[in-house]
């Protein structure tokens, strides 16, 4: 069983070949491929976490679609002053499928 922990969009995700994950919007190359930097690699019984060894390894993924997240509402209120503020936000996201670890 081979899997890797990758840094993707400010978070760390556990991925295997074929894993579909949602990350912050990423710009893909012309061929629709992305690469992620691994933080840890588990290959059967062997665990690799040294920076020098991980520099030789890359995790490749293909872009499935660009989408937007669920809308969240930010509300601010201060008592007795009449101050109210309401703001909405939808995060830009990308869905990717991991194609290779190595």
Structural write-up:
The protein has one domain. Strand 1 and strand 2 form a beta hairpin. With 102 residues, the chain is mostly beta strands. It is 4% helix and 64% strand. The chain is built from 1 helix and 9 strands; from the N terminus they run βββββαββββ. The model has no long low-confidence stretch (mean pLDDT 93).
Please describe the structure with a list of short key phrases separated by commas or semicolons:
single chain; 102 residues; seven-stranded antiparallel beta sheet; 9 strands; 4% helix; structural constituent of ribosome; RNA-binding; Ribosomal_bL21; bL21-like; ribonucleoprotein
Q: How many separate helices?
A: 1
Strand residues, percent: over 45%
Helix content: under 10%
Would you tell me the structural class of the helices and strands? Answer: mainly beta
The total domain count is: 1
Oligomeric state of shown chains: single chain
CA-based shape: elongated
Give the end-to-end Cα distance, rounded to a whole number of Å: 13 Å
Radius of gyration: 19 Å
Tell me the series of helices and strands, N- to C-terminal: EEEEEHEEEE
The unreliable regions are none
| Main sheet specs | 7 strands, antiparallel
Mean pLDDT figure: 93
Count of DSSP strands: 9
Family: Belongs to the bacterial ribosomal protein bL21 family.
Protein name: Large ribosomal subunit protein bL21
Subunit structure: Part of the 50S ribosomal subunit. Contacts protein L20.
GO molecular function, one term: structural constituent of ribosome
């Amino acid at each position: 069983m081979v899997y890797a922990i990758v840094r993707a969009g400010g978070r760390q995700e556990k991925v295997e070949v074929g894993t579909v994950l949602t990350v912050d919007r990423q710009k893909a190359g012309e061929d629709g491929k992305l690469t992620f930097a691994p933080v840890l690699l588990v290959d059967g019984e062997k665990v690799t976490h040294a920076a020098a060894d991980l520099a030789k390894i890359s995790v490749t993924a293909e872009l499935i679609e660009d989408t937007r997240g669920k809308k969240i509402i930010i509300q601010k209120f201060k008592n007795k002053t009449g101050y109210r503020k309401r703001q909405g936000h939808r995060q830009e996201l990308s869905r990717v499928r991991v194609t290779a670890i190595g």
